[in-house]
Amino acid sequence: MRKAILLSAALAAAATVSLGADVKTTARTQIKFEGMLGRMIGMFGGSKPQTATVAVRGDRKATLADGSGRIIDLGEEKIYDIDAKRKTYTVTTFEQLRREIQEAKEEAAKEAAEAGEQTQSPDEPGGPEYEFDLDVKETGATKSMAGHNARQVLAIVTMRQKGKTLEEAGGLVLTSDMWLAPRIAALDQVYEFDRKFAEKVYGEMGTMSASQLAALLAVHPGFQKAQERLAKEGAKLQGTPLMTTLTLEAVKDPAAAAQNQGGGGGLAGRLMRRNQEKPGTKTKVFASTHETLTIDASASAADVAIPAEFKERK
Predict the structure, then answer these.
(1) Alpha helix segments (H runs only) across the chain
(2) Per residue in 176-189, is it b (16+ CB within 10 Å) or e — as a string?
């Protein structure tokens, strides 16, 4: 899938669409998938850091680098992907994006099942019950970022089978390493926009493409629940995040590993056999980092507009 989805860490209840505030920032983002999942989605070692200008004005948000990127319109429920080199843009509705995500998820689920990597969802009927443990730590570390003093806070969510440890039955560990500044109202507008976009499209966050997110949820469906718990608790913290590193680690269920040993056929099966993981040990699935570099509490109409000379490509 070519469509990039930039979403926030907050997943609260829906609000009105109109934001009524302007902000312009620069931000640097990087995401890296590991092991078999990384190979399934073609990352092969991860992506390079990308720096972009992010502007929010009214119902629109633009994320652009060298004139190319994406404009999201919440009122129109449309996404405009901008190609500065060709001076063209394409239009995708929110409904089309929902379908693309579902199709990508179904395709990734087939690959995951073939490789013996698909795990059970916490919501699956008849499946095991899961518990979530939360640990929030103020490390005491501080540093200056984007002209603000920030403090480091670690929030760790552990998903495990009820009454069992990670080592006994496997699970997921989702860690958010945040650098929080005192509340920055302008930057909060970006997070608020992302939250509303997430709710309108599918209600999950991440800084990844539709195909990447679909593969992740196919292999580790519990990621969504762990992330929702992390977002709920993170919203209670005082301050605005200037940098967040999100890390997902998985612990394979020994019983499931024995049942799926060797994987299936095809490409996914070969990748599975090549990347056997020892049950009971943590294996990194992915790590993503989003850092705000500059903040300007203003944005013009031009910052979120498609240049007049650009033509729609259908």
Answers:
(1) 35-40, 94-114, 166-169, 185-201, 210-219, 222-234, 254-259, 266-274
(2) bbbbbbeebebbbb
Burial class (CB in 10 A: 0-12, 13-18, 19+), 41: buried
Could you tell me if 231 and 21 are in contact, meaning their C-beta atoms sit under 8 angstroms apart? no
Nearest CA-CA partner of 116 in 267, 277, 272: 272
Q: Please report how the helices 94-114 and 210-219 are oriented relative to each other, as an axis angle in degrees rounded to 10.
A: 40
Tracing tokens 């698909």 back to the chain, one arrives at 118
What distance separates the 2 farthest-apart alpha carbons in the chain?
A: 62
Phi-psi group of 255: left, alpha or beta (phi > 0 → left; psi -120 to 50 → alpha; rest → beta): alpha
User: pLDDT tens string for the chain (314 positions)?
Assistant: 333 333 333 322 222 233 446 999 999 998 888 766 666 555 444 567 889 999 999 999 999 999 999 999 999 999 999 999 999 999 999 999 888 877 877 777 776 666 655 555 565 656 678 888 889 999 999 999 999 999 999 999 898 888 999 888 888 898 999 999 999 999 988 988 988 888 888 654 445 555 566 566 666 666 767 777 777 777 778 899 999 999 989 888 887 655 555 444 444 444 444 444 555 678 888 888 999 999 999 999 999 999 999 999 98
Does residue 25 contact residue 190 with C-beta atoms inside 8 Å? yes
What's the helix, strand, coil split of the chain in %, to 5?
30, 40, 35
Alpha helices, DSSP H, located in 91-149: 94-114
For residues 239 and 189, what is the distance between their CA atoms, to the nearest angstrom?
A: 13
